[in-house]
Write a structure and sequence with these properties.
By secondary structure, this protein is an alpha/beta fold. It has 13 helices and twelve strands.
Amino acid sequence: MTSRQPRPRQRDIAKMAGVSQATVSLVLNGKPGAVGLAAETVSRVHEAARELGYVADPIAMRLAGRQNFLLGVHTFSAAFPVDIENSYYPFLAGVEQQAATRGYDLVLFTGAAPSGDHPARADAVHRLRLADGCILFGRTVPVAEIARLLDDDYPLVYIGRRDELGARLPFVGADYTDASRQVVEHLAGLGHERILYVREPDDALASDDREKGVKLGLANAGLTERAPTVVRSEGSDLTPAWVRRQVETGVTAFVAETTDVSAAARALTRAIAGAGLRYPSDVSLALLGEYVVPPVDEPVFTGFAVPRREMGRAAADLLIDLLIGASVPPVRRQALMDCEFVPGETAGPPPATHAGIQTRTKTKARRGQDA
């Protein structure tokens, strides 16, 4: 067996380059004192470091108060978004792309989120400090833990609009309110007067923004008085029978939000199909967002596209600029990006009558195909 070679040290570089260890430290650490060194001396030190395969200790660099060019990434959910179908995956891909462009590596933190029967470690959020700064995302925010990091001037950027900590927490979000307004106004422009909005049951800020946009779109279209109550559901109660009841009372268009799990949106699409209805001929459907990987054999849904990769890149850029002390105006510290409207194939004019729809749905019921 061969013995393991010791890790090269700065004193080894000094010996090979024929300089003092202090000179090596000045050159490799980029300290102001290195400015006065001869170019030939600096070159010899770098050459010796390359030849010996020297790599600076990131922990030592962190303790010395310097950057080690590591960006942390963490999501407050039970599983890290490495599945390409996860709605958070494009955010991560954008962060990785921009970090690499600017010479940074990523550290993925997973211990601050619960997993199955295992609660988050008590020190998990504190461990984020191993990186120079951290990018966070997730529908819910542990305000107290994040506030403590901000109190210590630890650089953070959140992907998604947050208002729990006011101007203290930088973020890059999507303008869900305006995008949702556009979708509803599009449906109203097609002639729909009864539009039902289905959202997730929690009080996530992104869901609230979408609901605000839906109500704004209804108001702009003059449908406020006829707007039905917003339905909150995790999906279990969205059955074919439920869909038929809504259609029989005059609903001609459904709007559903997509989230990290999209439970309500997926349940609604299954229920519409189970009710024997087709879109857009029988009923229209629009999604406030889109599936990262579209379901097989499904049409292109009417709605809007969230610029996830662009948000990830912008978040990485913002965090790096905060780390290097660049001037960052307030409008960029808390920025909202536009979402692109998608006309899709699932929205059209409302049917002239519901008689045909009711006949088909009752036939379905007789065949025992209710959920």
